[in-house]
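User: Just a sanity check before I run the rest of the batch. Below are the structure tokens for the first item. I only need the designed sequence back.
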């Protein structure tokens, strides 16, 4: 039982218990807005977040638990805490939205918590089996959430597409893991795989083939080109509250398993997967930015924007192998972690504002729905301005610092190829700025097409204001989060 170390997975145990309890409690709730269930869900997230904060402050090294199946470390706690915050904020933003569409039921809350549990398991996984267990728990919960609006043909279609393509991605990843199992001597433990590769006790051909399938599966989960085909349809077809669930926290899980599998487990095979990462990053930057320009649906534009943003984040995985220096590698992976945290923070606010503008009889998902927003609500327009500036990488928002951190990781290598890659990323960012600035132009210079009064108060508006201030203040004072991201990566990688 000592090897089990139950205390190391206390947040996950609490999350599982509360997800089951909330599903039972909701059976007896009669409040039309499901207030007891909603408050209990938020209280659960606060408690789980507090456990991660305590662990993050007092646990400088990794702790192996569950007989080696999981390994808790600073990076895991930071990503899990960020996912908890993302799901909590998404629930606050989505309460009024889902209530007005008859979706505010117990399964909305319990499935959200179970998806978060899957994310947490993926983040702390130290074994191929636990990686796949967490992946399937998260994925199945999200499939159900996307199709939760059963009376809507568009949502049902999105749920079916997400299920089919998600199952294909899971199959790719599982097949790649099985090949890795065979190539490295029959071990499922990630540290054992690392040892086998470092000592050369591998079948190189099988390893390379397995890596191709693993990277393809990760590409699907990250939503990057050429594995992006599901992203625009699911973003547009799902209810906006569920779109936010798909767009934010799962990106943290995808980042985590990318680090666990490729960096911690297969860094000695970096020359094999690094080139694939570079190709996916370049393809995502080109396709995401160019396709977003042609969109008139705001959610679909944000989908292609997300493809380009995650492609930019993948650039942080490219320089580490070229440099061959542990400190520089930690800096590169730290910049990628910082970028994904910033992207999730900005995405929460963007979709939160879309939900805030929507009504029971109207989905504010066209760019034209933002016309004249400054005249209707200067504060909401200012919040969207901050979010668009951050996604475009314009100072003084935090998105500028995130892009700069990734570019510095590329440029400081001194490699001519990576410097050219950095220049290409800057050019693509300039292209992407067009469609972000178009949204700002519509808000500030077009005449309003909707005269319906906007809500003046509520928890969602307060959280939205805090969200926008965080994006702005973290851009003005970026050092703390950037240093934390680099430090937790360095500690997690043992250096």
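Assistant: Here's the designed sequence for the first item:
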């Amino acid at each position: 039982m000592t090897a089990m170390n139950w205390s190391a997975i206390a947040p996950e145990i609490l999350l599982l218990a509360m997800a089951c309890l909330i599903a039972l409690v909701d059976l007896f709730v009669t409040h039309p807005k499901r207030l007891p269930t909603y408050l209990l869900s938020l209280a659960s997230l606060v408690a789980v977040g507090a456990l991660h904060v305590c662990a993050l402050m007092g646990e400088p090294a990794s702790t192996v638990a569950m007989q080696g199946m999981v390994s808790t470390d600073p990076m895991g706690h930071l990503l899990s805490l960020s996912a908890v915050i993302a799901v909590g904020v998404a629930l606050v933003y989505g309460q009024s939205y889902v209530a007005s569409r008859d979706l505010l039921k117990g399964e909305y809350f319990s499935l959200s918590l179970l998806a978060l549990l899957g994310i947490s398991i993926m983040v702390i996984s130290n074994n191929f089996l636990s990686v796949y267990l967490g992946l399937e728990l998260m994925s199945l919960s999200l499939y159900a959430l996307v199709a939760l609006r059963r009376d809507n043909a568009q949502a049902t279609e999105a749920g079916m597409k997400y299920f089919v393509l998600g199952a294909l991605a899971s199959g790719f990843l599982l097949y790649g893991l099985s090949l890795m199992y065979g190539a490295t001597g029959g071990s499922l433990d990630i540290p054992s795989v690392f040892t086998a590769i470092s000592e050369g006790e591998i079948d190189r051909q099988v390893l390379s083939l397995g890596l191709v399938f693993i990277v393809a599966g990760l590409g699907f989960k990250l939503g990057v080109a050429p594995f992006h085909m599901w992203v625009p349809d699911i973003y547009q077809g799902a209810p906006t509250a569920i779109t936010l669930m798909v767009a934010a926290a799962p990106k943290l899980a995808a980042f985590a398993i990318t680090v666990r599998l490729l960096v911690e487990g297969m860094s000695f095979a970096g020359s094999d997967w690094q080139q694939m990462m570079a190709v996916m990053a370049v393809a995502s930057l080109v396709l995401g930015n160019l396709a977003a320009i042609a969109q008139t649906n705001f959610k679909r534009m944000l989908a292609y924007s997300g493809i380009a943003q995650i492609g930019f984040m993948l650039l942080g995985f490219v320089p580490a192998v070229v440099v061959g220096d542990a400190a520089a590698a930690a800096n590169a992976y730290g910049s990628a972690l910082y970028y994904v945290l910033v992207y999730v923070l900005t995405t929460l606010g963007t979709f939160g504002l879309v939900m805030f503008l929507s009504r029971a009889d109207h989905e504010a998902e066209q760019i034209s729905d933002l016309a004249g927003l400054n005249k209707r609500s200067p504060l909401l327009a200012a919040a969207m301005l901050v979010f668009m500036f951050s996604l475009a990488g314009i100072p003084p928002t935090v998105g500028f610092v995130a892009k700069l951190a990734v570019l510095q990781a590329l440029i400081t290598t001194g490699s001519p190829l990576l410097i050219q890659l950095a220049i290409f990323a800057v050019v693509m960012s300039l292209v992407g700025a067009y469609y972000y600035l178009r949204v700002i132009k519509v808000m500030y210079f077009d005449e309003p097409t909707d005269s319906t009064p906007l809500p003046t108060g509520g928890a969602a508006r307060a959280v939205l204001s805090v969200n926008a201030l965080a994006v702005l203040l973290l851009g003005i004072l970026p050092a703390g989060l950037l240093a934390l991201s680099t430090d937790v990566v360095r500690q997690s990688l043992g250096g």
